[in-house]
Amino acid sequence: MSSKCPSCKRNCKDGLTCDICKQSFHPNCAGVSPEEAECLRSPNRKVRYFCDKCNIMDVVTNLQQEIDELKKQIVELKKATEERAGGTDNNTVNTTVVAADKQLIDEELINEIFERQQRANNLIIYNLSEDNLNEGEGEISDTTKILNLVGTQIIKEESVCKCVRLGKAVAGKIRPLLLRLKAPEDVIRVLKMYRPRNNVYVNRDLTVRQRNIAYNIRKEFKIRKEAGEQNIKMKYTNGIPKIIQEKN
C-alpha cells in the first residue's frame, strides 16, 4: 500500500512506519541507512521506530518536567514545614516533626508517580453522547462510537481494553467515559492526532495533583489575560496546559 511521506510529500511505498502515528517515511527522509531500514521492516524486529514528531524522548522530557514540578512543590512544602517547626523552642521536637513530614512528602511523591503509571494507558472522553441501552450493551456501543469519532487509522478496536462510563447516570447529563488502551503509545497517538469534533474532547486520565496544577495554570492564564497581557497563549502537552509567550 502506497501513501505520502509526511517529510517530502511524495508517494512512499514500503517505507518505514512510525510505531505511534503509523505514518510511513522514506528511509532517506527519516535519516535511516538502507541496512537499518531493512532491519526495521522485519516482522520479527524488536527495535521500534519513532518519527521525529513522535520521538519517545519528547515523552520522557515531558515526564521529567512533571517530576521537576513535583520536586519544586516538595521543596516548598519542606520549607513551610521547617518554618512551622521552627516556631517551637524544643529542637528535638523540631527535628522529629521535620523528619516525619519529609517521610510523608516522600511517600506522597512515590504514590503520585505510581498513580500516574497506573493511569498512563487511560484516556477520558468528554461529551460523547450517551444512549439509553439495555444493561451490558453500553460498553460495546460506546466503543463503536469512539472508533467512529476518532477514526480507526488512529485507534484500532483491538487496542481497546476497557470502555466504561464514570459515575451514576443522571437525566440530561453526559457522563465522562474512561477508555483504557493497551499501551501508553496508543494514548500518545490519540492525543497527538485527534482534533475535537462535535464538542467531544479527549484528555489524559489525570491524577488529583495534575488536575489541580492544570486548574491553577488556567486560572493564572485567565488573570493575566484580564490584566491586559496579549502575547501569551496556552499550549497543551499530553493534556497538561502550559503558558507560553507568543512569537512576534
UniProtKB/TrEMBL annotation:
Where does the Phorbol-ester/DAG-type domain lie? Answer: 1-39
Tell me where on the tree of life, at the top rank, the source sits: Eukaryota
Q: Which UniProt keywords apply?
A: Metal-binding, Zinc, Zinc-finger
According to the UniProt entry, its GO molecular function terms are: zinc ion binding
Q: Tell me the InterPro entries matching this sequence.
A: PKC_DAG/PE, Zinc_finger_PHD-type_CS, Znf_FYVE_PHD, Znf_PHD
By its UniProt entry, which SMART domains does this protein fall under? PHD (SM00249)
Q: What is this protein called?
A: Phorbol-ester/DAG-type domain-containing protein
